[in-house]
Amino acid sequence: AQSVTQLDSQVPVFEEAPVELRCNYSSSVSVYLFWYVQYPNQGLQLLLKYLSGSTLVKGINGFEAEFNKSQTSFHLRKPSVHISDTAEYFCAVLSGGGSEKLVFGKGTKLTVNP
Amino acid sequence: DADVTQTPRNRITKTGKRIMLECSQTKGHDRMYWYRQDPGLGLRLIYYSFDVKDINKGEISDGYSVSRQAQAKFSLSLESAIPNQTALYFCATSALRGSHYEQYFGPGTRLTVT
């Protein structure tokens, strides 16, 4: 079965610092990968997705992620964070082969401090 | 109008009561899902449906049932609610066409069982 591991449950950073949120997945078939953001008391918003093509994916709000097949990773990065980036971030994987079940990691709470 | 709507948005109920959460979509997607979100656990799949006649259990289906009344409607029922079903519930839809993948989440239903 697929699984997603988000290696850090909480990441505190200072404003304007770079950040990397780590995500590893387990799957033996082709995968589609996603990052979602959830702001306090809100629903899920898609940040970016990797389906095929370039392994470096750019998303909204200045975030990007790199798909690394050999390391089965899909880490999320932002070069300079803002207070408004404080939220919970979820990595998710969808396996190919018609099994359209999106499996989520447990989430990483990003707190940006002034 | 929102692509995926959920009713109610908030509900407080007592242990032992039957409750239904409803989901409607306007995307024309065949695939629909119910997830629950708990702090520190991410989103976990309860049930999913690939068309009106196809219903499948997810990883945490015990204590829940679903009904796919039409392509656009997918309801989740708690036959006898218990306090550990207190959570945030999300409905979602998806479509995978070649390498093009779409998924939409509803705004969530916050359920409290006392």
Describe this entry's structure for a reader.
The complex is a heterodimer of chains A (114) and B (114). Chain A is mostly beta strands and 114 residues long. Chain A is built from no helices and 12 strands. In chain A, a hairpin with a 4-residue loop joins strand 8 and strand 9. Chain A starts with a strand and ends with a strand. The mean pLDDT of chain A is 91. Chain B is 0% helix and 62% strand. Chain B is built from no helices and 11 strands. In chain B, a hairpin with a 2-residue loop joins strand 5 and strand 6. Chain B is globular and about 45 Å long. In chain B, 32% of the residues are buried. The mean pLDDT of chain B is 93. At the A-B interface, strand 6, strand 10 and strand 11 of A face strand 4, strand 5, strand 9 and strand 10 of B.
Shape of chain B: globular
How would you sum up the major sheet of chain A?
A: 6 strands, mixed
What's the rounded overall pLDDT mean of chain A? 91
Oligomer: heterodimer
Number of helices of chain B: 0
Tell how many strands the DSSP assignment of chain B holds: 11
Give the overall silhouette of chain A.
globular
Unreliable spans of chain A are none
- The beta-strand count of chain A equals 12
- β-strand amount of chain B: over 45%
Count, helices of chain A? 0
**Helix coverage percent of residues of chain B?**
under 10%
What percent of the residues of chain A sit in helical stretches (DSSP H or I)?
under 10%
Question: Main attributes?
Answer:
heterodimer; A: 114 residues; mainly beta; 4-stranded antiparallel beta sheet; 12 strands; 0% helix; 55% strand; B: 114 residues; 7-stranded mixed beta sheet
Blueprint of the fold:
The complex is a heterodimer of chains A (114) and B (114).
Chain A: E1 3-6, E2 10-14, E3 19-21, E4 23-26, E5 31-38, E6 44-50, E7 56-58, E8 64-68, E9 73-78, E10 87-95, E11 102-104, E12 108-113
Chain B: E1 4-7, E2 10-13, E3 19-25, E4 31-38, E5 42-51, E6 54-57, E7 65-70, E8 73-78, E9 87-97, E10 100-105, E11 109-113
